[in-house]
Amino acid sequence: MAVTRILSPSKRTVKINEHSAFSLFRGNDGVAEMLASGGIGTSQELVKFVLSHFALGYKDVEAPAHFDMRPGCTAVQVKRSDGRGYLFGRNYDFEPHTMLILKNEPHDGYKSVSTVDTSFITGNFGKAGKFLPASVIKALALYLPVDGMNEKGVCLSVNMISDEDALITQDRGLPKQIVVTAVRTILDRAADVEQAIEILENCDMRSWKGFFCHVAIADAKGRCVAAEYIDDKLVINESPVVTNFYLEKGPKYGIGTEQSHIRYEKVMAHLAERSEMSADELRDELAGVAKSNFPDDFHTTEWSIVYDQKSLTATYYRREDYDHPWMVFI
């Protein structure tokens, strides 16, 4: 029987094991200042803003041209079998990397917990990456969440789509955002899917050539959507399952990996048979589409998470170790 370890994050970054850690940020996380300054449209702007806002120095650190993120993922929302709200599950599939579970308690926003692949930080800074102190990594991690949940039960999952023609260049005079800063803004400010969509509608989304992520957004009322961009236009599709292909009907529909279609169809078939699940059953559903089920794939399922949108807990399973979960309370 699995024994869950409860994590109680503090301001100090604490290692769980050699490739996992957790920490807490409490204070002004800078979202208001980021938006007021015109937003963030590139990796360089992100690094410059974070180092300046948190007065971290390191002005000579050369920011990466872009953060190289190409994960494959599965996200699913399901009603709890006991009728007590909803659960949101997420697999993060990529190469073996390091992770940081980061609890955020901003002065002007909702509390949240998010997960960050810190290899994006250390690996993309070249030689300087190995010398970045924990304080710099944590500050940058605030603006590089790939999934998370806030105290209102709003959950997000950033899911990559393989589309070399993808490029988002919105330019309507609104504050700029890249996908990870938008996730931070939504976690801080959205109480439901509708408010999350409003945040996306009121920013100019930017990306770099060949890099495209759509975002699964789910709230405590049971609404789950995929937010995508087609020809610089935000489109929203209602779906309880999001993997790694476009859901918007039209020329882009279905573009993505073959495996992402297999995972999507498998989970959707199970939801048709069983529309309600316990937390353990959702964990098993995530295990059924984890990377160990695809031996021809060199990626791994770096983590699986079951977010309880009612009790506001996040239960983590690292690298398909389902016997030693970790839990964080928001």
Summed up, the helix count is 8
What are the segments in which pLDDT stays under 50 over at least 5 consecutive residues?
none
Gyration radius, to the nearest Å? 18 Å
Q: How does the major sheet shape up?
A: 9 strands, mixed
Which characteristics define this entry?
330 residues, alpha+beta, Penicillin V Acylase, Chain A, nine-stranded mixed beta sheet, 24% helix, 32% strand, globular
How would you describe what is shown here?
- The structure is a single chain.
- The chain is 24% helix and 32% strand.
- It contains 8 helices and 19 strands.
- The chain has helices spanning 31-36, 43-53, 119-124, 134-142, 179-189, 193-201, 258-273, 279-288, and strands at 5-7, 14-17, 20-27, 72-80, 86-94, 99-106, 112-117, 147-150, 155-161, 176-177, 204-205, 212-218, 224-230, 233-238, 241-242, 276-277, 300-308, 313-318, 326-329.
- The strands form 3 sheets. The protein has a 9-stranded mixed sheet. Strands 1, 4, 5, 15, 16, 17, 18 and 19 form an 8-stranded mixed sheet that branches.
Describe how the helices and strands are arranged.
Elements (H helix, E strand, L loop, with lengths): L4 E3 L6 E4 L2 E8 L3 H6 L6 H11 L18 E9 L5 E9 L4 E8 L5 E6 L1 H6 L9 H9 L4 E4 L4 E7 L14 E2 L1 H11 L3 H9 L2 E2 L6 E7 L5 E7 L2 E6 L2 E2 L15 H16 L2 E2 L1 H10 L11 E9 L4 E6 L7 E4 L1
Parallel strand pairs: 1-19, 3-6, 4-16, 10-11
Antiparallel strand pairs: 2-3, 4-5, 4-15, 5-17, 6-7, 7-8, 8-9, 9-12, 12-13, 13-14, 17-18, 18-19
Helix pairs in contact: 5-6
